[in-house]
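Data availability (excerpt). The following record was deposited with the supplementary files.
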Amino acid sequence: MARAEALAPGTDSVETVPPAVDLVLGASACCLACVFTNPLEVVKTRLQLQGELQAQGTYPRLYRGFVASVVAVARADGLRGLQKGLAAGLLYQGLMNGVRFYCYSLACQAGLAQQPGGTVVAGAVAGALGAFVGSPAYLVKTQLQAQSLATVVVGHQHQHQSVLGALETIWRQQGLIGLWRGVGGAVPRVMVGSAAQLATFTSAKAWVQEQQWFLEDSWLVALGAGMISSVAVVAVMTPFDVVSTRLYNQPVDGAGRGELYKGLADCLVKTCRQEGPLALYKGLAPAYLRLGPHTILSMLFWDELRKLARRT
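Predicted structure:
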């Protein structure tokens, strides 16, 4: 079994799993979490697109709050509509988090986690690489989840029928570069989220263990750490999440250029100017209800799967 430095800065080295195993475990853990949290992702996407580039009070609010939005989606698209984009979501989670956890594990093996701020840097770099690899899947997921009946439509409608059909359409119309359209918003989004998640989970887990509330090897330690980590993730990630959703879902011209935004900075400026700064936290409640449980479940599943891997 490979040896690596402990994830928590300043702690003694502990036995861990090889990076290749972390790739599989991280991808599996996040795919499991995605199955439970995808309905929240659908609602969050609709809320973030609602009233896009329109001043408050000038557009109909088709989605009002979390519970009402769930009902609206279910009424318009059926219960299956709450799992729109699940296949693309699973593909994204597998690709992005497989790369992310693999790179983070490599950084920890190299001893970066023991350096001041090492977990933040490792998490950010690993997140950036994972976001780049998974960007085409996230693009398709966002566009599929935005699709709905005319009565509750928000955002541009791309009319994709499936994940493969969407990838084929984008490839045919925009070329290879089109599959990575919006990646400029995705990389910062995952960088800050990954840095916050992995760094705070590491520190929170060590803190929970120090309190001795639970047995040291109990799954409740990882659960508690994940709950703490989720707050930090949502706080720093939501503005980038709103921007990323809009960059991915915007219509494009014949040359494959976005018709609404030129990039990350342009989207931030236009959103704040026309909708106000609070628009960057649109869908905050479902964002937490999605990102919170997803962070908790992902880190819990990852931690428990690593324990099983170490025992084999």
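Summary of structural features: The longest helix spans residues 19-49.
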